[in-house]
Design brief:
The structure holds 2 protein chains of 2 kinds. By secondary structure, chain A is mainly α. Chain A has 3 domains: about 80 residues, Serine Threonine Protein Phosphatase 5, Tetratricopeptide repeat (Alpha Horseshoe), CATH 1.25.40; about 80 residues, Serine Threonine Protein Phosphatase 5, Tetratricopeptide repeat (Alpha Horseshoe), CATH 1.25.40.10; about 55 residues. In chain A, about 80% of the residues lie in helices and about 0% in strands. The longest helix of chain A is centred in the first third of the chain and has 18 residues. Chain B is of the alpha/beta class. Among the domains of chain B are: about 45 residues; about 100 residues. Chain B contains 4 helices and 7 strands. In chain B, strands 1-4-3-2-6-5-7 form a 7-stranded mixed β-barrel. The chains are: A mainly alpha, B alpha/beta. Chains A and B meet through helix 2, helix 4, helix 6, helix 8 and helix 10 of A and loops of B.
């Protein structure tokens, strides 16, 4: 009993003796809370709610003339809209930024623009953005792996599978032991797609399965469903008998997650093999 | 000597009396002259205006100028211009200048059809701006008896001409009434012939028509049966439709009632909910900052999203 009392007393004294945390101004605190909440929702895949919170945070930071906070949340907002498949809105958002008022990560902006341009199949603009990003990145930069992956996607879109494979391999090497599971999954998916496009369907299958394994661990429904679609395509190419099963898995996942576009693709693929 | 002195004093007194009398008489004459001048308006302040007329008929120098029937001035000059028109100058008492707007016009009209002519100034609609001194006003002349007679004549002559033309046309043997009657008679004869031919043709068609009518009668009989069947079923269907409509109406009424209730009850609930959420956020925010909870919670900080170059996994299927 005496020991418990002594421990409690020590705890209280420690609490009283600790340095008081400096209080932030309420408006800045609200902005940071909105940003933090948006990030949590983004991680949970609640993109609509995340968008609202990032937008609120962006406005709050703008209202206290906090340029870095505003830019950061603009980029968060752009990423959220990309996840929602609203590429046009992303370009509007990024092009609407005033570089003088929001000086910041030009490389990140270029990479996000390239993603949006890829989604809109604007190949020439994508190449321009990626060339500018590569010039900014130089020999090495923290975003080098992402840049390589986007270059691989652009090459694949331009029907250059070997080039795409080279970029995806480079990205995979850069990501080794970095703990960036999402980008690693993207790299494996790109390797699988590049190998399939290059005629190496047998080599594509383990890469696609590696991507699926990572995406399952991260519990990302859209990526899992698209991985299954890719696996179905590969199995179809090699003439495996369980192609329909892969498409059905894609359909199941997409239907459960409410991904209408992916579900439609799966249904079409199923119809094609019947 | 004393008598002469007395005489001089009387003469001086008489002379003084005469001088006084003459002075008083002169002053009285002057007063009368001034009174006459005042009466004649010699000391009145006046303003000049002018107008141009086609003719000087009924306009004379000294003629009264009126506003609303009151004499306010007179014509001071009437002269013929080089272009054949008549320039008329008028003077108006300054007191009445306020009635003469920039768009006022001078009208010459007669009292009755044959009375004397008077010049009347008619103020314009825009009362906000007065005509400046020496302004040229517009002039118009109201129609007299001669003008009225001319107008009547002008109206009647075309009517008389029309009557003459109509009667001439009616009397024409070819195009008039006799010719028309002859053509009607011819048309009636032709119609009789046509009717006779038609009668013969209709007799031929009659047989065929009777057969067709027989078939039509049969079809109508069948149609009548169908209608009877429909008649038997229709009341039931109508009853059911009516029931459905009644139920739909009930549902709509109910929905309207709910919507009306919601309209009044939901906004306060939402406001209360919002206020409650704000309170809860405040309480939680306060609790978060309170020791020892604050020790376990990280303060909000700038977020870093994990890099993802393909958030939708679209790279799997190349375009």
């Amino acid at each position: 009993m005496r020991a418990k009392s002594a421990f409690l007393l020590a705890l209280i004294l420690a609490g009283c003796g600790s340095t008081p945390k400096p209080a932030e101004p309420p408006r800045l605190r609200a902005a940071l809370e909105a940003e933090s909440d948006g990030a949590k929702r983004y991680a949970r895949g609640e993109f609509g709610a995340a968008e609202r919170r990032f937008d609120e945070a962006m406005r709050l930071f703008a209202s206290v003339d906090d340029g870095p906070g505003r830019t950061r949340n603009r980029l968060h907002l752009a990423r959220t809209r990309l996840a929602q498949g609203r590429a046009e809105a992303v370009l509007d958002l990024l092009n609407g930024a005033d570089p003088a008022a929001e000086p910041g990560p030009a490389l990140d902006v270029l990479l996000l623009k390239a993603q949006a341009q890829l989604a809109l199949a604007r190949d020439a603009e994508t190449q321009q953005s990626l060339a500018a990003a590569a010039a900014l990145c130089g020999a090495a930069c923290p975003q080098a792996a992402s840049l390589n992956l986007l270059q691989a996607r652009a090459a694949l879109a331009g029907n250059h599978p070997q080039e795409a494979l080279a970029h995806a391999d480079s990205a995979l090497k850069l990501l080794h032991d970095k703990g960036e599971a999402i980008e690693t999954g993207n790299a494996w998916r790109l390797i699988a797609a590049a190998r399939l496009a290059g005629g190496d369907a047998a080599g594509a299958l383990p890469a696609a399965e590696a991507a699926l394994d990572i995406d399952r661990r991260l519990a990302l429904p859209e990526k899992i469903a698209r991985d299954w679609l890719l696996i179905g395509d590969i199995r179809r190419k090699v003439g495996a008998g369980d192609t329909a099963a892969a498409y059905r898995r894609a359909l199941d996942v997409a239907s459960a997650a409410g991904l209408a576009e992916v579900a439609r693709s799966a249904t079409q693929s199923l119809a094609q093999i019947k | 000597m004393s008598l002469l002195t007395q005489y001089d004093a009387d003469a001086e007194s008489l002379r003084r009396g005469i001088r006084r009398f003459l002075l008083v008489a002169l002053l009285a004459m002057l007063a009368v002259a001034v009174a006459i001048a005042v009466r004649q308006g010699a000391f009145r302040q006046t303003t000049g205006y002018s107008f141009v007329a086609n003719s000087a008929q009924d306009i004379v120098k000294g003629q009264a100028v009126r506003i609303a029937g009151f004499r306010v001035g007179s014509v001071t000059n009437v002269k013929l211009k080089d272009d054949g028109q008549v320039a008329v100058d008028i003077e108006i008492d300054a007191d009445y200048m306020r009635f003469i707007t920039h768009d006022a016009r001078v009208e010459l009209h007669k009292e009755g059809l044959v009375g004397s002519a008077t010049l009347e100034i008619m103020p314009g609609a825009d009362q906000s701006r007065l005509a400046p001194a020496q302004a040229r006003l517009t002039f118009s002349r109201s129609d007299g008896l001669a003008a009225l007679a001319n107008q009547v004549r002008d109206e009647f002559i075309p009517i008389l001409k029309d009557i003459k033309t109509i009667t001439g046309t009616l009397a024409d043997a070819e195009k008039g009434l006799p010719g028309t009657l002859a053509r009607i008679r011819e048309s009636a004869d032709a119609l009789n012939v046509l009717l006779a031919t038609s009668n013969r043709q209709v007799e031929g068609i009659g047989g065929t028509a009777i057969r067709v009518l027989g078939k039509t009668e049969q079809s109508l009989g069948q149609f009548s049966q169908t209608l009877e069947a429909t008649n038997q079923r229709l009341p039931g269907m109508l009853d059911r439709t009516q029931q459905i409509l009644d139920r739909t109406q009930q549902v709509i009424d109910h929905a309207e009632k709910i919507a009306a209730e919601a309209e009044t009850s939901v906004p306060p609930i939402l406001r209360d909910g919002s206020a409650a959420a704000a309170d809860a956020r405040e309480i939680i925010g306060g609790a978060k900052q309170t020791w020892p909870i604050s020790s376990f919670i990280d303060p909000p900080a700038p977020a870093v999203l994990k890099p993802d170059s393909d958030p939708r996994g679209e790279a799997g299927r190349a375009r």
